[in-house]
Amino acid sequence: MSRDGKCGIFLKTLEDYKSAVYVYTKPLRDFSTESMSLIPATHYIYTPLNQLKGGTIVNVYGVVKFFKPPYLSKGTDYCSVVTIVDQTNVKLTCLLFSGNYEALPKIYKIGDIVRFHRLKIQEYKKETQGITSSGFASLTFEGTLGAPVIPRTSSKYFNFSTKDHKMVEALRVWASSHLSPSSALLKLCDVQPMQYFDLTCQLLGKAEVDGASFLLKIGSFLRIYSLHTKLQSVHSESQATLLCLEFHLHGGTSYGRGITVLPESNSDVDQLKKALESADLTSQHSDRFCQSEHEDSFPTPSTMVNGIDLRRSYSGSGSVSLYEVERCQQLSATILTDHQYLEKTPLCAILKQKTPKQYRIRAKLRSYKPKSLYQSVKLHCPKCHSLQEVPQEGNLDIILKENATKTPDTKLHNTLLYDSKIWTTEEQGGRKVAVHFVKHNGILPLSNECLILIEGGTLSEIYKLANKFHSVIPVKSGQEDLELLDLSAPFLIQGKILHYGCKQCSSLRSIQNLNSLVDKISWIPSSVAEVLGIVPLQYVFVMTFTLDDGTGVLEAYLMDTDKFFQIPASEILADDDFQRSMEMIMDMFCPPGRKIDAYPWLECFLKSYNVTNGTEQQVCYQIFDTTVGEDVI
DNA sequence: GTTTAGGATTCG
Known about the structure:
Layout (H helix, E strand, L loop, with lengths): L6 H8 L5 H5 L3 H14 L15 E11 L3 E2 L5 E8 L5 E8 L14 E12 L2 E15 L20 H17 L17 E7 L18 E15 L5 E8 L9 E5 L4 H12 L2 H17 L6 E2 L2 E2 L1 E4 L5 E4 L10 E3 L10 H6 L4 E13 L3 H4 E4 L6 E3 L3 H11 L14 E7 L7 E7 L12 E5 L3 H10 L2 E7 L4 E3 L7 E3 L2 E3 L25 H7 L6 E11 L4 E8 L8 H4 L3 H14 L12 E12 L2 E9 L1 E3 L5
Parallel strand pairs: 4-6, 21-22, 27-29
Antiparallel strand pairs: 1-3, 1-5, 2-3, 3-4, 5-6, 7-8, 8-9, 8-10, 9-13, 11-12, 13-14, 15-30, 16-26, 16-28, 17-18, 17-26, 19-20, 20-21, 22-23, 24-25, 26-27, 28-29
This protein binds one DNA strand of 12 nucleotides through β3, β4, β6 and β8.
């Protein structure tokens, strides 16, 4: 530090180190003018690696000759071991520690160029080594000649001048003629048995091994260092031998073993993305699933790389095909609530089989209909299985008005069942609204427990009353009694939920039948419906899912009250939070703007059945006993 | 104001 003289403390702040406190004690104006004048004057001295002396703190530049990606040490910090070399051809192994993973240099491959500030030089076993000292900071650059000189660092402020630019360029030139070039991206199809290599890949699926592992998210690009390939023979029941190329990432950190997440901006990631995009997806799919049929019939050992499963199979003839991830090891966006014992069936096989049958499948949701939530919520009659649209709110006022009598009949007011009250609106031509408060054993209950019958109310008036009272039933004056409206109107309103009945299956009974329920405190829709002779309609989500597992595509129908999405279809139209959850689930199944490869797998239980449409026979599929995964909601 | 790791293939 003393070498930098009076600039030393200020330089620490430039490197985003804790000593920033020192600066903040100064008047702000002072700080800004000082920094303006100091930055151009700041210069670091970089010590060539052949001039290092134990006990000093230096700044160095070097080409990475070896490195261990940061890993959690047995102490308190992350550790990264980095060996660098410079034009003097002297190597220096550096031990880098930090409690902050991000603070360690972002080295992705051998040949990267690093700049270390405040590296302590010490002797260990008669060898010179570097170790992080207070205020250590680093920059990392790509080592490729001609690549843009962009520093990778977690430091908020760092010094970077044309001099640094030249240092990086000079090291690139020197390395290009003095060091063996970093091996080109090795593709899985070029991997040979019994070798160690670095794999750049995208994470498509994972299995949880234990809760203490490092969290990787699916879809990120990874580099796995020193992955070991091993040929494994697998004997099937039919005595056929399947050779399997296993990928092992062994324990420890020897030879730089480890995994790092590569940023999207990384040039190798870019190369991989382009290759994946240009690949013929259709042929890849069929190829992969062709293999998985073998997988289903042969018990093959799993090939785990810290919870990630990567495997390539050799068929007996020696031809090679690739499937990147063992499907059963992946997390699904949906799970089965039953039938887990069933073997999975590829869609191509299902499409060939006779109906009716049940299957466990694993597929992606290529698309779905309808796109609008309002179009997907319908009313279903559990008795006659008819489906109908939920009446639009705009039409409900008209339905209510058409249904109601013009004037409430006062002869029907104030009975044993209810107390009545009548209001006359000042405007709207003196419209009369009657409210009948249903008594509980002759006594009026509290409003939040009270069922009211309303005559001549508008939808907004009904909603207001429904907010205050337990339940609201719209009625009209009949010849001898109050009567329910036509079942185009809701027969019961609770909060924001409108309950409808089936016109075909219901035979309306007298309102007086509510008498049999007044002993009960709460007005359960099904009980109210029952005493009034109504078959209540269920709110359901009705959707068509186009499922694709790479072997085939089929359309499956989903009808759900609340089991599949874990959202009550009856409440979603009146609840913004439920609507947002639904949107999130559908966007998770079919992420907008992404290709199907990036979509999650859905595990579903399907039933096939025949539908006769006139003279035409059609095979249909319906999703059953499936639910959105808990970790997804 | 310490320790960690201190490059040197696995693991049965």
